[in-house]
Design a protein that fits this description.
4 helices; about 120 residues
C-alpha cells in the first residue's frame, strides 16, 4: 500500500518539475507566466513547492509546510477565478488545461493529505 508520505512526496516532486518548466521559459523569454506585481508567479509557486518539499523530507517544520502550501493555494484560487472569468490567462498544459486549475488541485491535496498524515 502506498503511504500518504509518499503520495505527498510524489505530488511535491511532480509540481516542482512542472513549475520548473515555466520558470525556465520565464527566464528564457520573459513571458512564461503571469506576474504578481513585478515577480513572475511561477517563481513564487516554485518556492511554494520547494519549501514544503524540504519540510516534508526532514519530517519537521509543518508550519512552513502549511504557510507555503497555503500561500500557493490562495494564489491558485485567485488565478483560477480570474481565468474562469476571463480576466487573466494562466499558462496551459499541452492539452489546453490551465495550470492554475492544476495548482489548485495539487495544493488542495497537499494540504488535505498533510492534515491526514499529522492526525495519524
Amino acid at each position: 500500500m502506498i503511504s500518504i508520505y509518499r503520495v505527498i512526496l510524489v505530488l511535491l516532486i511532480f509540481g516542482t518539475i512542472g513549475v520548473g518548466g515555466l520558470v525556465i521559459e520565464e527566464v528564457q523569454t520573459g513571458n512564461g507566466c503571469p506576474k504578481i506585481g513585478i515577480i513572475p508567479a511561477c517563481f513564487i509557486v516554485l518556492f511554494c513547492f520547494l519549501v514544503p518539499l524540504v519540510a516534508h523530507l526532514k519530517k519537521k517544520w509543518n508550519i512552513l509546510y502549511f504557510l507555503f502550501t497555503g500561500l500557493a493555494f490562495v494564489i491558485a484560487i485567485i488565478a483560477s477565478v480570474m481565468q474562469y472569468l476571463g480576466h487573466s490567462e494562466c499558462p496551459k498544459t499541452d492539452g489546453g488545461l490551465p495550470m492554475c486549475y492544476l495548482s489548485f488541485a495539487i495544493f488542495s491535496l497537499l494540504i488535505t493529505l498533510k492534515i491526514i498524515q499529522i492526525k495519524k
